[in-house]
Amino acid sequence: MKRIRALLCGVATAALAAAGLTALTTAQASGATTGTTALSNRWYAAAPYLMPTDNNPPDAGAIMDATGLKAFQLAFVLAPNGGGCKPTWGGTSPVSSDTAVGSVISAIRAKGGDVSVSIGGYGGTKLGQACSDAASTAAAYQQVITKYQLKAIDFDLEEPEYENTAAVAHEIGAAKILQQNNPGLYVSVTTAGTADGTGWFGKQMLNEAKAQGFTPNNFSIMPFDGGFSGAAAQTSALTNFNAILQSTFGWSADTAYAHEGFSGMNGRSDTGEYFRQADFQTVLDYATSHHMDRFTFWSLNRDRECSPPDNGTTSGTCSSVPQSAWEFAKYAVTFAGATPPTTPPTTPPVSTSPTPPGGSCSAAAWSGATAYTGGNLVSYNGHTWQAQWWTQNEEPGATGGSGVWRDQGAC
Fold first, then answer.
1. 3 state SS of 245
2. Burial call 135-148: b when 16+ CB within 10 Å, e when fewer
3. Is the dihedral of CA 374, 61, 34, 23 positive or negative?
């Protein structure tokens, strides 16, 4: 969630202005700032990040239809680029006069969904830096909550702000004030992840929260862009972060997990790490088995295949791994407790290969050279197997495998 955002958010101004002109009538007609029924906390905890006016924003309604997703984490609210303690989208578009993002929110709510808004992110000037104290910082964020009738908000504390002690104190203080003044508000605090859980600045942020007596719904770490290599490194970081939460707040392991969140990056990260579908499944299994509070990722703008699928670069608009559109969003849906819709696989041709032991199978024989996506059927060792997500060269039923293949029985 770091460098690629900073590099690509600069084109937002023109796009936002154009979108605002065309969205005004829609936003007014659909009531972007009218009240909405809150979703369960689990949905706000599973809301992937979406830049609604930048990085080739996808249609939120289409994602909802394809995946069953109901909640979106809209990014990012910052201080004005020219200075001042007023909320803007990306530092350029004042929240007070916004219609473009309001139109997106209205469309999501019209389909039974809702949004959280993320404040901060990597780069730019944050309101905690620009405002004079916690009260004025909270007042600026309250404008965002009131404007969009928010039931959830995310404090994304990263560089350079989290290196500024006063700014972090303003942000944590503001979060506490908002939590008190908006009963039921779902509050997440997101910060950098390291192999040890989180770094020195992340630990200082937790100490600030403890000093102020502030407890959000969760503290989430981003275990990527730090020398991570797949899911094992990420779950190790989550285990270490759990220990940090225990030691900081005096919680049990279970209580710490109940206040812990994961915020990943789908596909190729800014530093060239790869987090594929199997990695997401492994972390999802870890999060659910430990009863963690949040599972999200950066970003829905990237949840689609590049052309070619992996060109060795990191993009803000595609994942750089082979995938079907919105495939990573389905992991968030599963975390929320819903069952993502499945796309019926294309009827496979009848295998002309010799009948394997165990009976006659109609699905094509599994091949290690073929890439399969969720829903595909194969035959292997006399059984039919169904892929749960993208896979290649993982033998069905392999001991120690990722669990990508689900046995459908003998054929």
1. helix
2. eebbbbbbebbebb
3. positive
* Residue bearing tokens 């699905």: 363
- pLDDT value at residue 1: 53
How far is Cα 66 from Cα 111, in angstroms, rounded to an integer? 13
Whether residue 377 contacts residue 345, with contact meaning beta carbons closer than 8 Å, is answered with yes
Nearest to 9 by CA among 135, 105, 118, 97: 118
* Contact between 398 and 380 (Cβ < 8 Å): no
Name the DSSP letter for residue 368.
T
Model pTM greater than 0.85?
A: no
Judge contact between 219 and 260, C-beta under 8 A: yes
Q: Specify whether the CB–CB gap between 214 and 176 falls below 8 A.
A: yes
pLDDT at 4: 62
What are the phi and psi torsion angles at 408 (to 5°)? -95, 5
The rounded average pLDDT for each run of 10 residues, N- to C-terminus, in the chain (411 residues) is: 49 38 35 69 98 96 97 98 97 98 98 98 95 98 98 96 97 98 98 97 98 98 95 98 98 98 98 97 98 98 97 96 98 97 52 41 84 80 80 73 75 80
Q: 403 and 277 in contact (C-beta within 8 Å)?
A: no
Residue 365: DSSP 8-state: B
Give just the sign of the alpha carbon dihedral 60, 62, 64, 67. Answer: negative
Three-state DSSP class for residue 242: helix
pLDDT of residue 386: 82
Find out whether the peptide bond into 48 is cis, omega within 30 degrees of 0.
Answer: no
* Rounded Cα–Cα distance for residues 365 and 354 (Å): 10
Give which of 347, 346, 348, 333 is closest to 66, Cα–Cα.
Answer: 333
Q: Report CA torsion sign: 71, 34, 98, 61.
A: positive
Q: Which residues pair with residue 222 across a beta bridge?
A: 192
Neighbouring residues of 89: CB distance < 8 A, sequence distance ≥ 6? 12, 16, 53, 76, 77, 78, 95, 98, 101
Catalytic residue among 158, 161, 260, 273: 158
Instruction: Look up tokens 């120690």; give the residue.
Output: 400
Is 394 a known active-site residue? Answer: no
- Helix ranges (H only) for 328-375 are 329-336
pLDDT of residue 30: 36
